[in-house]
Amino acid sequence: MSRKKAVKGKGSCSKSPKASPSSSGRSGKSLTAAASPSSGLVYPSRPSISNSGEFYDIAFKVMLVGDSGVGKTCLLVRFKDGAFLAGSFISTVGIDFRNKVMTIDAVKVKLQIWDTAGQERFRSVTHAYYRDAHALLLLYDVTNKASFDNIRAWLTEIHEYAQQNVVVMLLGNKVRQLEFGVPFMETSAKSGLNVELAFTAVAKELKHRTMKEPDQPKFELQQYVDKEMRAVGCCRS
Ligand SMILES: Nc1nc2c(ncn2[C@@H]2O[C@H](COP(=O)(O)OP(=O)(O)OP(=O)(O)O)[C@@H](O)[C@H]2O)c(=O)[nH]1
Ligand SMILES: [Mg+2]
């Protein structure tokens, strides 16, 4: 299988407005070029020159959808650049994309990730891109009930505009928002998700408080939970 180089898109997390498909900027140009193959799936046959210079074997289009403010742009920036740009919220205008090449089972997989505007007024723009998407990440904000209540409406749109076999994943974002000033984690009594961990973490905290050794570092409950979740790939049942 021959390899192709990935072409860079751009994006930012609440930093600058995104280009709409009609814009003439760099993003707008990338968008036109990337949107053209109707199958969406790309099996490159020969290498080509690009900005990012990364080779890949196979490419997929992934779309981020969900209410405005749930954190789609931030999630993409975190995934692409490993950074969280906190600060004033600037809503995405239209649609934009960024590429990331990952190695999955020794295969270089390029994800072309489309960051859509959650605002209602851009819906007709984003609908046009659903058809080519191989996967949709549907986000809600765990601190915003309305964004969760709207999931059903988003799924209706997805069923209407996306391909039938599109991969859909629901993501509850902002789980580290500690606005109540207490450690936080998500659990599921039904699946068992994180249940063991929740009780273990509390037991550890209590034990450390009770049996405090003077030269031992302070036990940080949230840090422990984060570390354990990372160690098991986030989810334990
Ligand atoms: N605490 C916390 N804040 C977040 C998180 N993700 C995003 N935010 C904040 O939420 C706000 C909205 O984030 P965006 O990523 O711009 O939201 P969006 O879904 O792209 O919104 P639209 O572009 O309007 O559709 C910003 O102020 C971010 O800093 C998170 O995981 N935790
Ligand atoms: Mg955005």
From TrEMBL:
Family the entry assigns: Belongs to the small GTPase superfamily. Rab family.
Keywords: GTP-binding, Hydrolase, Lipoprotein, Magnesium, Metal-binding, Nucleotide-binding, Prenylation, Protein transport, Transport
Cofactor: Mg(2+)
Species of the source: Cynoglossus semilaevis
Cross-referenced Pfam families: Ras (PF00071)
Keyword check for Nucleotide-binding: yes
SMART domains, sorted: RAB, RAN, RAS, RHO
The EC number(s) this enzyme carries: 3.6.5.2
Reaction catalyzed: GTP + H2O = GDP + phosphate + H(+)
GO MF term (any one): G protein activity
Disordered, as annotated region: 1-43
Biased composition (Low complexity): 9-30
NCBIfam families: small_GTP (TIGR00231)
Keyword Transmembrane applies: no
BP-aspect Gene Ontology terms: protein transport
Enzyme class: hydrolase
Protein name listed in UniProt: small monomeric GTPase
